[in-house]
Amino acid sequence: MFNHQTPSSSHNQDQQQDDSDHDHHDHQTIREIHALTTPHPQPPPQPYHHHISSSPSIASTESENFTTMSREFNALVLAGTSITRSETSEVANSNNTNNGSSNLERIGEEDMSENNPLAIVRDDNPVMSRRIIIAGGNPNEVSVQTVKKEEVESKISAWQNAKISKINNRFKRDEAIINGWENEQVQKSSSWMMKIERKLEAKRAHAMEKMQNDIAKARKQAEERRATSEAKRGTKVARVMEVANLMRVVGRAPAKRSFF
């Protein structure tokens, strides 16, 4: 119906609406209601791009633009009157806000809710939002950080194991060298001791042989000296017996001094 209005009819309707508004304001008592808290400033509305369908003729396009403007103006007037009448209570205010939004929808205006994820929107609670971001975090970022941490930890573990295995191998080589040197020294000392023992065995055998020879020689010399002494004793005994027999025959007593 609004699409087929003429400029004169729209002007008459606007004048009648203004007269009714003046009459209503004369009889209505306006009560001012102040908000307890300052309302948060709303972000600037996004520019509204109204697409107008093209028509084959320029005249029809201009008439459609004019009728659209008059329709938007009427909707704005109706929205303003409904908002001023609904300031008596909070419930009425919320209901009229919904009506205003419906009226704004009628003229083609959309709700100023930001749906663009890249748009810059004022943060009313920056501390809480920062805490929520720190506490919750993005699961993708957390998973990436976890993967990076696990990768670094695996690299550190691999480096640690490589260094420890290298140190252990070096220690095993040093231990093998030390064990070889120890065995060499023990073998050298054992061979020296065995050499000394062999020498001592040779000296002992030579000393034993010399001892036995000395014993045999001493026994032989002792036998010879014993035989010589026995021969001297027998010779002396035989001479004494001969002199004694001679003295018996003569009958003379032996002198005090003997010639023997």
TrEMBL record:
List, alphabetically, the Pfam families matched: Remorin_C
Q: Which residues form the Remorin C-terminal domain?
A: 150-256
Q: Where is the composition biased (Low complexity)?
A: 89-103
Q: Residues annotated as region Disordered?
A: 1-65, 85-118
- List all Basic and acidic residues biased stretches: 19-34
Q: Which family does it belong to?
A: Belongs to the remorin family.
- The molecule here is called Remorin C-terminal domain-containing protein
* Source organism of the structure: Tagetes erecta
